[in-house]
Amino acid sequence: GESVGLHLPTLSVQEGDNSIINCAYSNSASDYFIWYKQESGKGPQFIIDIRSNMDKRQGQRVTVLLNKTVKHLSLQIAATQPGDSAVYFCAENMGLRDSGGYQKVTFGIGTKLQVIP
Amino acid sequence: EAGVAQSPRYKIIEKRQSVAFWCNPISGHATLYWYQQILGQGPKLLIQFQNNGVVDDSQLPKDRFSAERLKGVDSTLKIQPAKLEDSAVYLCASSSLAKNIQYFGAGTRLSVL
Fold first, then answer.
1. Taking CA atoms, what residue in A is nearest to B38?
2. Pairing with A77, which of A88, B70, B74, B107 sits 20 to 30 Å away (CA)?
């Protein structure tokens, strides 16, 4: 994906507010999308996924929305907590998810979420 | 369930030296990935193995980087010789064939001086 160097997009939210993190993906053939959370000094951690035949999926405090028309993905975090502070990446998969075949994964740029206590 | 293990956590070398990183994936995961993450950027895939075969190494700088996954379990990534621009975190991830969620290790932070 494109690089923004050291200038990651940053979202600052007050503790308790809802957060919305956006992601534009590049390939209309992508059939599966995943959101990852990366805390400082750690590897990315799976949050939630969505298949291309869905437009919304909910987890615990998180919701992912998919708009295939404009190739846009968003992650909504309800009642944001200090522990949610991290960099969030969307990843798009191209491939036959259930066939065991090769799948190409591309990570987006990332958004840094800062939660203000 | 044990996670993905990587070592070392940190490595500092001078340019033109060699370095190797090790990864032990989650038991039973057929697919193993090596990523390079430069500060402020998303992970960039270097190489992907399925069992002990390479399925994608299109972004691996093959003149200096090499990787192997003998016996389809552990993997090593080597850089020889290192350049200043190789300074980054090297992440290893694994996934099962049934569900393509990647589980990442903590990474190895490489500084090339």
1. A5
2. B107
- Which stretches does DSSP call E strand in A1-117? 10-14, 19-24, 32-38, 45-51, 56-58, 62-67, 72-77, 86-95, 103-107, 111-116
CB interface of A with B, residues 15-34, below 8 Å? 32, 34
> CA–CA separation, A86 vs A83, rounded Å?
8
Q: Return the amino acid letter for A111.
A: T
List, in sequence order, every residue forming a beta bridge with B21; answer none if it has no partner.
B77
Nearest-by-CA chain A residue for B49 = A102
Averaged over B46-65, what is the pLDDT? Answer: 93
| Tens-digit pLDDT profile for residues A94-110 | 764 444 556 678 888 89
Whether B26 contacts B103, CB under 8 Å: yes
CA distance between the termini of chain A: 32
Residues of B with CB under 8 A from a CB of A: 4, 33, 38-45, 48, 50, 55-56, 91, 93, 97-98, 100-107
Average pLDDT, chain A: 87
- Looking at the predicted structure, is the pLDDT value of residue B75 above 90? yes
Is there a cis peptide before residue A117, judged by omega within 30 degrees of 0? Answer: no
Chain B residues in contact with A26 by the CB 8 A cut-off are none
* A42 contacts on B by Cβ (under 8 Å): 106-107
